[in-house]
Structure formats: structure tokens, C-alpha cells
Design brief:
Elements lengths: L4 H12 L3 H8 L3 H8 L7 H11 L3 H4 L4
Amino acid sequence: MYMNYIDIIKQTMTERGMSQQAFADTLGVNQTTVSQWLLGKKKPGYDSILLLYEKFGIEPNELFNIE
């Protein structure tokens, strides 16, 4: 099943019981940035994509459904 980056981030936060603020703190970004990701207004940038992999094991190709 295809999941876009928004769904993957939401699922990751839910599985770990993290608020937007806690998720943002883990990645070193603002809570507003996480909110914009979840609303689809912005996509994670290179540094955030790397941290999503390092902190949560989310593969960049999985994040953007690249095969």
C-alpha cells in the first residue's frame, strides 16, 4: 500500500506517542515546520530527510515512494 510522506510521518509520531513538538525537537526543526509537513504545505528538506532516516529508520525512497 502506498503511503505518502504525510502518512509516514503521522504513523511514526503515533507509533512513538510523539507530539508535533517532540517530533520537531528530535529532528531539530520548528513545530511549525512539522505542522506544515503534515498539512502538505512543505516537504522535508535534505537535512530533515537524513535525520528521519537516522532517528526513525525511514528510508528516503519510502518517504517519497521511489522504487
